[in-house]
Amino acid sequence: MGKIPVKIKSVVYGLSPFQQKVMPGLWKDFTSKVTHKFTDSWLGGVLLVGPVAGVYTYVQSYQEREKLEHRRIPTQMVYASRDRQKEKTERSSLDHLYMQMVFSDC
After folding, report:
1. What is the dihedral of CA 25, 29, 33, 34, to 10 degrees?
2. Residue 100 and residue 106: Cα distance in Å, rounded?
3. Could you read off the pLDDT of 49-86 as tens digits, one per residue?
4. How far apart are CA 56 and CA 64, in angstroms?
5. What superkingdom heads the lineage (predicted)?
6. Where are the domains of the chain?
7. CA distance 66 to 68
8. Contacts (Cβ under 8 Å, ≥6 apart) of 15
């Protein structure tokens, strides 16, 4: 077999240390591109984020209610404590009146 030299044309790409523009079109008009994407597909975003946010808030409230369930005071205990508080105030006012009567005679 004979060796015949063949001329090959090739293009070699390289980055210059003085000018590097890697993906220059990505950052060009970035804000307008992002706003365009959001305004075109806002319904899809709402339909995706809405149920996820709803489930998350429901789970958080359910866990909070479950955590506080053992701290609930039964209704009878609330009324009993109110009655005790009322008796205390009545007793202290009667004691005050009695003391006034006792010391006013002196």
Report:
1. 110
2. 10
3. 999 999 999 999 999 888 877 776 555 555 666 666 67
4. 12
5. Eukaryota
6. 43-68
7. 5
8. 22
Distance CA 23, CA 12 (A): 18
How far, in whole angstroms, is CA 3 from its chain's centroid?
A: 73
Tell me the two tokens of residue 100. Answer: 């006034």
How many alpha carbons fall within 13 Å on the CB side of residue 40?
A: 6
Residue 79 to residues 24, 48, 59, 88: CA-CA distances in angstroms?
74, 48, 33, 14
Angstrom distance (rounded) from CA 29 to CA 33: 6
Cα–Cα distance between 72 and 30 in angstroms, integer?
54
Q: Please give the Cα distance from 88 to 82 (Å, whole number).
A: 10
